[in-house]
Amino acid sequence: MCERSANCSKDDACQLVIRNNDTGIETVEYYCKAHLVLRICEVEDDDGLTVVDATKLWN
Ligand SMILES: [Zn+2]
How far is the CA of 23 from the CAs of 6, 15, 16, 26, 42, in angstroms? Predict the structure, then answer.
């Protein structure tokens, strides 16, 4: 489920919605909790991208 690594064994899924500031297009990515934090840091450092929403998905 985690998009960061195919070998990631974490099964806690989080949904991250990102908007491209140039196109306005929003994309949805899925990560485990740990990799979600890493990805949010990357997005916040990228002036072209904005975090729209980050949600823990409960099974
Ligand atoms: Zn992961």
Answer: 29, 21, 18, 9, 19
**Amino acid (1-letter code) at residue 15:** Q
Residue 19 CA, ligand 1 centroid: distance in Å: 21
Q: What is the pLDDT of residues 2-36, one digit of tens each?
A: 888 888 876 678 999 999 999 999 999 999 988 99
**Interval between CA 40 and ligand 1 midpoint (Å):** 13
Contact yes or no for 18/43 (Cβ under 8 A): yes
Neighbours of ion ligand 1 (CB under 5 A): 2, 4, 8, 10, 32, 35
**CA 36, 51, 8: angle at the middle one, nearest 5?**
15
